[in-house]
Amino acid sequence: MQVIATHKNADFDALASLVGASLLYPVAKQILPTSVNQNVRSFLSIHKDIFDFHPLKEINLDIIYRLIVVDANRWNRLEGFRSLMTRADIEVHVWDHHPEIGDITPTWSRQDAVGAATTLLVEAFQEKAIAFSPIHATLFLAGVYEDTGHLTFPSTTARDLRAAAYLLEKQADLKVIQAILRPTYGPQQKEILFRMLADAKRIKLNGYRISVSRMELDGHTPGLAEVVSMYRNIVNVDVAFGIFRDIRSDRCTVIGRSGIDSVDVGAVMRILGGGGHSAAGSAIIKSVPPEGIEVWLTEAIKDHRQLPVQISDLMSFPVKSVLPGATMKEVAAILDREGYSGMPVMEEERLVGIISRRDFNKVKPRQWQMPVKAFMSRDVMTVTPMHSVAEAMRILVKHDIGRLPVVQDDRVIGIISRSDAMIYYYDLIPE
Questions:
Q1: Is 103 exposed, middle or buried (0-12, 13-18, 19+ CB in 10 A)?
Q2: DSSP code, position 308
Q3: Which of 77, 93, 212, 309 could covalently link to 7 via disulfide, CB atoms 3.0 to 4.6 Å apart?
């Protein structure tokens, strides 16, 4: 017997990969986990007769000779297959998009760092000219869209977009996708969000703003992932985690959402026994108190190997500056010659101001011989070399300024500009 399996708490990428793999392995039985996301459950309530799923209890594990794993690469993410770990007579195929190496050692695999596992299967359909219905195309596109945040997550690749385009050509229905991917958000979710906001707290780890919220719930509650996403946006942090303890089962659902690619919440969740990708992840932990999970989370982030790029990695140095007594005409000539949009004003290595091109709009014709100190900005925002680029960008945007002196021990050791930050964010090569 051949079987296809995917991870617990199956989302649309998992479901689409499960169904997609059945087109490549037509004799394999699709094993749907008992735990699926609420929007997947709603979709299946209407479409379940179209797909041929089997519960694990109907499967005799002893006669399995090939296991096809989709959207996962760790045994603990699969439901009920742990007994196969030590079976040397089983052929294991893995289709997965998570960049981290798991503990499943495959006989054959297609494991590429794309936005969705479904993308890998769609590419295989194209290679093998496998036909499928518009209903299948719609499900596959839902898998790609959900795991890439509608093609906006940093993990999204050009391959995901090409797969989406191909599925639209195969008559995937965007109206249906809009309906099935609509997040579950009603009075129950609103109450949870308000409770989280009432107790919101922020901490700084590795230069980033993190918020961890703990809450007790009575029974299963759908839509928690959307609540955590909204919570992160409202409290304006880089990364947010929700720890939800079900008092009936003493089980904690942990959900993480990241708005930056420097903190991979999927990797953090894998430490907790869960999974996900860089922007979103989750884990289910039994018999561990929420406060212990919070400590576990913060320590995992501290030890996270994908450390953020610091200002010291991008800043320009040595810093060229002007004296406060230099004339506006002299400073204008320096800016034109060097191609700068502004410069710090220094007096005996002490930062006393910033002059920018916009300050020259105040200069009247008779004032070009006046000293720069008459026009410079004296309330200077600064950063340290250990600040993250994200923090610098927040300051630049909030105060609408073009550059930030980098100060250490009261000395200006560098300067970072909007251009430097853009080079980092867009992976540009400085000219």
A1: exposed
A2: P
A3: 77
Measured in whole angstroms, the distance separating CA 131 from the mean position of its chain's CA atoms is: 33
Q: Residue 35: its pLDDT value, please?
A: 87
Q: What is the identity of the amino acid at 71? A: D
Q: Which CATH number fits domain 187-302: 3.30.1330.10, 3.40.30.10, 3.10.310.30, 3.40.50.2300?
A: 3.10.310.30
Would the pLDDT of 18 be above 80?
yes
CA gyration radius for the chain?
27
CA distance 169 to 165: 6
Task: Out of 8-12, 285-289, 364-368, 395-399, pick the least confident.
Answer: 395-399
Per-residue pLDDT tens for 182-197? 766 778 889 999 999 9
> In 3D, which of 152, 18, 157, 139 has the Cα closest to residue 99?
157
CATH of segment(s) 312-425: 3.10.580.10
Query: What are the CA-CA distances from residue 371 to residues 327, 374, 426 (Å)?
Result: 4, 6, 38
- Mean pLDDT value of segment 72-79: 91
**Every domain range in the chain assigned CATH 3.90.1640.10:** 2-180
Q: Which amino acid is at 428?
A: L
d(C-alpha 349, C-alpha 369), whole Å: 24
Nearest-angstrom CA–CA distance, 356 and 362: 11
First to last CA, the chain: 59
Amino acid type, 289: P
- Greatest Cα-to-Cα distance within the chain, rounded to the nearest angstrom: 93
Residues 355, 339: Cα–Cα separation, whole Å = 14
Token digits for 252? 């904690």
Q: Are 145 and 177 in contact (CB under 8 A)?
A: yes
Question: Could you give the CA distance from residue 118 to residue 14 in angstroms, rounded to a whole number?
Answer: 8
**pTM for this model (two decimals):** 0.62
What residues does CATH 3.10.580.10 cover in the chain? 312-425
CA dihedral defined by 147, 151, 154, 159, rounded to 10 degrees?
Answer: 90
Higher pLDDT, 313 or 272: 272
Q: Which of 242, 238, 232 lies closest to 207, judged by CA? A: 238
Compute the CA torsion angle 365, 371, 375, 380 (nearest 10 deg).
160
